[in-house]
Amino acid sequence: MIRDEILNNQALKSSALFFDEVYKTLVFDNDAQGRPMGYFCDVPEGVKVLPNGDVYFSYYAPDAKTVEVTGIGGGFPVEKHPMEKGEDGWWHTTVSGLDSGFHYHDYYVDGNRALNPYVPFGYGCGRIINYFELPDKYSDFYLLHDVPHGAVRMNYYKSEITGRVRNCFVYTPPSYDINREKRYPVLYLQHGAGEDETGWIWQGKINHIVDNLIADGACEELIIVMNCGYAMPKDCTDPIIGRTAISDVIATECVPFIDKKYRTVADRHHRAMAGLSMGGGQTQQTVMKYPEIFANAGIFSMFYSLEPKVAAMSPEDFNKDFDLLFYGSGEYEPVCNSNREILRELAKKGYKSVLYSVPGYHVWDVWRYCAREFIKLLWK
Questions:
Q1: Is the pLDDT score of 94 beyond 60?
Q2: Closest Cα to residue 59, out of 8, 98, 113?
Q3: What is the pTM of this model?
Q4: Which phi-psi region, left, alpha or beta, contains residue 125 (left: φ > 0; alpha: ψ -120 to 50)?
Q5: What is the DSSP letter of 152?
């Protein structure tokens, strides 16, 4: 059974649209004197996780002939589950046997994919998509706890490379606005393909993860910078080439902007970069191109691709180049065994790195674990 304090934690249902769950609708009516009035009434939660781990889905479509819900793979398989219609226009079904963790999922109304407005959603898989959490009994490290909380700030900076004004989200730790003399190391944290710079906040819960780590004394206080990974050069007509510009944008434009605006420790040893999937590839690309800027790298769910750097350096020089080189993934991903074999062989030759894995697929709950373990090791 899942504990009530986990099931009812606000972090599980927060999204970009609302932090505290609403599940209200406004009904228009007339009062006793015939004057227009309105009042709020409750509506069902679109997704409700039950204590036994079953998941109860609800969808409002009074005129629909069919409504179905399906996962997109991994812990919620791609199998359409028909929903049953009630007299009030709400459709419902209960799905059992889903794996715990984070789940993107879809609804189909009369065969057409649709969003559920009563379920949290963010930007994922290249579109707006619903998601929910099926927590396990123990993993509450990414939930909202009664600890000091940091702040998430939105910043704009001009990019000459892209010819646009760019946005980055910046997490500052609880002490940042209190201890005005302290300076902090910085982690540049990247999302994956089909997501954006909001992903590590709403889906990843990185601010809660770090708040809890700091409160436990399990990591150094740090600043985290989250950039959009799509950085097209202003003169580029090839989107594949355009993907490579993110390294230059972060290293030559964002890093100087952050070092000027925030109280950072502005050297390579106190600067890290990490990312998941596409963001892991961007991390490898960036630390190879700008070793004078980054001495720490976390690569999550991405295949090892540091061969040019390794081939050009002895183990002694390579180990001096990185303070921490961390590879993490889900154990059900092909990348896990591939990286394990490569890093074991490199370890035999003296190249140092950290290999981490946790049961799971190519999903956010895996990347939360990876981020937590990586951050715990940084600057130790």
A1: yes
A2: 113
A3: 0.94
A4: left
A5: E
